[in-house]
# Entry
Amino acid sequence: MTNLFERIGGEPAVDAAVDIFYRKVLSDNRINDFFDGVDMDNQIAKQKAFLTMAFGGPNNYTGKDMREAHKHLVARGLVERHFNAVVENLADTLSELGVESSDIGEVAKIADSVREDVLNR
Amino acid sequence: MATISIGNNRIAVNTGQSVLDALLSVGTKVPYSCRAGVCQSCITQAIDGEPPDIAQAGLKETLKQQNFFLACRCYPDQDLVIENFELDRCGARVEKLIQRSANVLEVHLVPDIQLNYQAGQFITLWCDRPGEDVEEGRCYSLSSLPTEDESLIIQIAKVEGGYVSTWAHEQLSRGQQLVITKPTGNCFFAPEHVRQSILLAATGTGLAPIYGILRDALERKHLGEINLLHSAKCREELYLHKALRNLEAAYPQLRYHEIVSDSYHNDSCSNMDIEEKIAHEWPRLNNWQVYLCGNPRLVQKMRKQVFLAGASSQQIFSDAFLNRHDGLGIK
# Structure
């Protein structure tokens, strides 16, 4: 029985997904204001870390990291609907890459597990 | 068991131990975060020895070529000498000075030692502040080609209130001995294949690295189309106009696009800004390679734009002429 990360395709899948995902996020008027003026290289490295985590891959990210990293965005008005938009973009990216819908559901569930930390609640 | 050398220290790496853990175990200050090869905080460079492939997974091709690797993913099977991040300097003599335009001085420097570099990388030029115990450094990108030019060639724009650029424009003379930091940087020619389409965009003296990258591509007989855009405030500041038109005549794959941002001078030039021109002419950039150099605000804008137009993030190379490359050293 392979785990979720292996089923999706491991690190190469993260590499394939990160550009598609970040392009969607930057083009999404509901959330792209939060990404104005940020350095693209740094942001892509962070998106890679997020996708690795959401795909069930190896990561060392803690709730505290998530809280710290999003604190300034919450202060700028980051709320539930923005978080949902990101998860939606993530699911769209995976379905574009041909990932099984049951696996997409599992990824969405992992992404959802950081909701409270990201929103600093 | 492999040994890592960093500066004067030798550190043993046990089997199954990563270079990051070995460095941390002896108190070396290494930046790190995820320990999983993802965040790239712990990136470092092997000066001697080959890092294992797994330690380079996910890095840009230009970084792999220079033996950069991620310490957290490196379980070395051979000894490595790694960069100790200290500034590496050498002397250089001013060989030639050419006033390219009212605003741009081209400086040819002959270094005291043989330096390996790639066209498009940058050096730091140091100058003393007389009467004070500090020196000022500014980074300048190389337009020279190591295989063709004996000198390191930089182009210095006069910046109002800029200490180093004013010093260079007013006080440099032929034969003068200077101090530089060796070439570094990852904005240089590294195509995926010989027929890849290439977009080169420069504002102001961002043309220096772009011109170096262009010459490198032509020397390596790149076959894909190459579009070079240069934008400047006025026609006179399109300071390599003639050289680029000559190259364009000699190489059918090359197109040179002039952009003058001041609309009073736009006669035969494009009357669009550089980012508008790119959006208009190249709305789809899938599989292209893109190089962007110059004004940080424009470089950032163009990066986002070409990425959204489909260029892969791994295929966009940029050098924003920021103050972060600047240094202030205490002697």
Confidence is low (pLDDT under 50) at residues 323-331 of chain B. Chain B touches chain A at residues 33-40, 57-58, 300, 303-304, 307-308, 312-313, 316 (CB under 8 Å). DSSP finds seven helices and 17 strands in chain B. The CA atoms of residues 20 and 71 of chain B lie 5 Å apart.
